[in-house]
Automatic annotation (TrEMBL):
InterPro entries: CDO_1, RmlC-like_jellyroll, RmlC_Cupin_sf. The keyword Metal-binding applies. One of its GO terms (molecular function) is ferrous iron binding. This is Cysteine dioxygenase type I. The lineage of its organism: Bacteria, Bacillati, Actinomycetota, Actinomycetes, Propionibacteriales.
């Protein structure tokens, strides 16, 4: 089996698993946990992206759309982070699940008053899910190598332009 076939098969299985999780009709927090279980089962490898996509960009972290469900109920996006790249502090329009497939991603968690309440280094294979409220965070690549993660959002982010609801200073 070729790498392309393996990547396509993994994405097909992941999308089917996400459909099943969403079909449980849980609240957003429950859905995030059910989708996280599916991502753990079907976490792709970096070869889900082309070699060129895995390089990222020197300007900012890059996103690559891997799948958008036809009814707009979810999107699967790959994010590629060069060393030092980071997001602004933000929250989300819907539930979100992510899994690291290469490198390390550091996450800072904040309360509603923007007090730092937690930090974690997410390594290859780590999967986490969350939903508003209580989803204010910032993600960055603190290592000296490229990091890649798979993010699943409970909406068509290509239609709305971003998964972020608000940015904080």
């Amino acid at each position: 089996m070729t790498t392309t076939t393996t990547s396509t098969s993994t994405l097909t299985d992941l999308a089917a698993g996400v459909r099943t999780a969403i079909g449980e009709h849980a609240d957003w927090h429950g859905t995030a946990q059910l989708v996280a279980e599916q991502l753990r089962r079907h976490l792709p490898t970096p070869d889900v992206l082309t070699a060129e996509q895995r390089l990222g960009s020197a300007d900012r972290y890059r996103s690559h759309t891997l799948h958008v469900e036809p009814d707009g109920s979810f999107s699967i996006i790959a994010l590629v982070w060069q060393p030092g790249q980071l997001t602004r502090i933000h929250d989300h329009v819907t539930w979100c699940v992510f899994g690291v497939i290469q490198g390390v991603e550091h996450e800072d968690l904040y309360d509603a008053d923007l007090n730092l309440i937690g930090q974690s280094d997410n390594h290859v294979g780590d999967v986490s899910g969350f939903a508003p409220p209580g989803d204010i965070h910032r993600v960055n690549n603190t290592s000296d190598t490229t990091a890649i993660s798979i993010h699943i959002y409970g909406t068509d982010v290509t239609r709305i332009g971003s998964s972020a609801r608000r940015y904080y200073n």
